[in-house]
Write a structure and sequence with these properties.
The complex is a heterotetramer of chains A (359), B (251), C (181) and D (67).
Chain A: E1 4-7, H1 8-18, E2 23-26, H2 33-45, E3 49-52, H3 56-68, E4 73-77, H4 79-94, E5 99-105, H5 121-125, E6 136-138, H6 143-160, E7 163-169, H7 170-174, E8 176-179, H8 187-195, H9 223-243, E9 247-250, E10 258-261, H10 264-279, E11 284-289, E12 291-293, H11 297-302, E13 310-315, H12 322-329, E14 335-339, H13 348-356
Parallel strand pairs in A: 2-3, 2-4, 4-5, 5-7, 6-7, 10-11, 10-13, 13-14
Antiparallel strand pairs in A: 1-8, 6-12, 9-11
Helix pairs in contact in A: 1-2, 1-6, 3-4, 10-13
Chain B: E1 3-5, H1 24-37, E2 44-48, H2 56-59, E3 63-66, H3 72-82, E4 87-93, H4 94-100, H5 102-110, E5 115-121, E6 124-125, E7 131-132, H6 151-154, H7 160-164, E8 172-177, H8 181-199, E9 205-210, H9 214-217, H10 221-231, E10 239-243, H11 244-250
Parallel strand pairs in B: 2-3, 2-4, 4-5, 5-9, 8-9
Antiparallel strand pairs in B: 6-7, 8-10
Helix pairs in contact in B: 1-8, 4-5
Chain D: E1 3-6, H1 16-20, E2 26-32, E3 38-42, H2 53-57, E4 63-66
Antiparallel strand pairs in D: 1-4, 2-3
Chain lengths: 359, 251, 181, 67
Amino acid sequence: MEKILMKGNEAVAEAAMRAGCRLYFAYPITPQSELIEYMAKVMPKVGGTFLQAESEVAAINMVYGAAGSGKRVMTSSSSPGISLKQEGISYIAGAELPAVIVNVQRGGPGLGDIQPSQADYFQATKGGGHGDYRLIVLAPSSVQEFADMASEAFDLADKYRNPVLILADGMLGQMMEPVEFKPIMTQEEIDELGKQHTSWCICPNADGDAKHHHEINSLELDPSVLEKHVLQMYEKYAVIEKNEQRSEIFNVSDDNEVLCVAFGTASRIVKSAINELKKEGKSVGLVRPIRVWPYPYAAVAAAIGPKVKQVYVFELNTGQMLDDVKIAVCGKAPVNFWGKVGGIVFTPAEIQAKLEACF
Amino acid sequence: MEVIAKRPETLTKTPFTYCPGCLHGVAHRLIAEAIEEAGLINQMAGVAPVGCSVFAYKFFNFDMAQAAHGRAPAVATGMKRARPDMHVFTYQGDGDLAAIGTAEIVHAANRGEKMSVFFVNNAIYGMTGGQMAPTTLPNMKTTTSPYGRNVDDIGYPIRVCELLDTLVAPYYIERVSLLSPADIIKAKKSVSKVIQYNKENRGFTFIEFVSTCPTNWGIDPVKSRDWAKENMLPFFKPGLFRDKGAEEVKS
Amino acid sequence: MTTEMICAGFGGQGVLTIGKFIAKAGMQEGRNVSWLPSYGPEMRGGTANVSTVVSDDPIASPIVSYPDVLVALNQPSLDKFAPSVRKGGVIILNTSMCPHGCQRDDVEIVAAPLSDIAVEIGNTMVLNMLAIGIVIGKTNLIKYETMEEDLTSFLKAKNPDLLEMNLKAIKRGMEIGKEHG
Amino acid sequence: MPRMTVDPYYCKGCGLCIAACPKKIIRFSEDINAKGYHYAECFKQEDCIACKMCFMTCPDVAIKIEK
């Protein structure tokens, strides 16, 4: 398949459609508007449903309904809109429904601005909504990866019956890079996928089974029953933590004197700085969590080489992933942090200067 | 020589961030002038929405709050209840007021909150780049109704004045146009009346402005007014729906 | 080899398109590319800029700190980005809208009244094609043939006159770029 | 004598005042302002009748009328 030059927002929409998503509900917000606009164009062409909801609150509840009906469904928004969706996301997690949510993050708090940010890391990985639950959180760093993560997200959501969040940002949404797509899933394949949910989802009682009664629900007033349900969910999360950690290592070797940790957009910029430092004969490695929940603690720990004097975390926030890195490093090296906030993205030159100061 | 028309003191010196020919500026001026003329500059507070007019708090030269999307009537309710001696209004676009904020506007109106709501209807989402609004006309193409608004799928545009007119509590409801100098002069009278009612704490007052979006409609500012006259006014008919003040005078 | 480029100007001058065409051509020539616009809530009339990277290697940061090539279509853009251009880099500036010029003496400067030349060719709209032509003539970053192929594929049927005018602008730009070589 | 003046600082060159003027004495200037717009200007002050139509229609409140 040929490469197409596309914005991240458009690429993830196209990829979701190709991965069998035929239901999409959302509300416009910058900088993810190209995503909803792309879906408005493409969904009618493939017989899918595009619906611009009256609000993010309505959109996520439409997702709840569609996911409860066992279909591949997606919504997307940007930071303030994702905050509005949190109640619904908690319901989806509590009811153990598969759904995909895309957050094209922008500067906050409040209405903030519309520039790229990573300030929703806590919200994405530590809860966001109320109650004990987890989202699987994928953190792309290129347009290609953003697109690839659409099908990955649906597969994970189906496999674990859990909402999956793709944590992108304004830069990934707005930038264009060449992207290659997987083939469009056929209707037969989509129908086949849907069958894995027919034992529990809202669906017609085709066999006229007298016992057919499926409930989509997150309410359980009996504490002992709710406790059992939550603990079962946590058993599931333990399996996810064991099997689903993903990370990339870049220039990691025993020569490293500094080990960087960065995800998403920030990691791209750190890579540029590392390339420049290489020319100066300075050895710096990078661990990039590809998924930020479950967090790749083991990979970060393993990348700390014998000469590493310092672990340096770079984020477009005030240090939200820093806590996870500290858990991973576990006192083996000092952990330093530098971040930019308010929608300002650091430049390769700035990161280079920060790293040079470590030598 | 005497200055007979100029920028009112109730507007700051900050230039509007709207696109060339966007009529938000006209609505701003009418409200600002009416507040100045009513002598309310020190007792008035406004609430800015999310959307193109999100920066309205920078343009009005009195206290302003900026609300989360659609929640301006709730924020204004809180302000008015906390400080009954203040006079409050909200300024909202069609996405903010008639989509995500439908619940807030209906319930603020239904409670008869003593506030004014200025609602600008241009049938599109401007700030985010031309998506379909709850007031987008049938068959009208936008970036999220690329094949035209299909009323069988997404429903008809919402007529907010008519909707609010079903409630008992509202004190004043009117739809005006900003599409010609004559319409603007007429609209000014309505705005002044509403601000006067607001000053007297009469009740919930509501004005809808039929406006344009030259940028997202892709029509130049002058022609976009003609387009709106031809296409919007038949569906969103200007007129007075409710004026309890006039009824009181009669009886 | 990696070339990092910034194009900047008033909204409406087509700077985003300059970057887009160059990125697309680079991609069609089998190279890695990225295109990153600045974006804002004011729909029209503001300033716009775009970072474009064309590279033989995977592109790390799409954000450009030190451009190898700067296309500045007005004075505010030139003032903002000229100081960061790499030593020995290229600044292409539109003298029609850069009355104060550029003070750097350690870079190559291609200065021409691009807005005026665009009007001469037939339409201010071809300003961006002119700029692309200069980039090709000066740096060989992409091939003329790739641009011609790309433009032909979507303009030939729709608007052959516009196609011709665009190609003319690119060729004229290439001449300007070569003259300054 | 009546007089209308446009403040180029505010004007965005939308042309609504030009359309509104009954005496047709407003045009776009040759110059551009800091934002890059050809702003509106009155080229025949002596014909101005201070009707305020331009002021009424100006969305950027850039016009002053004196009489």
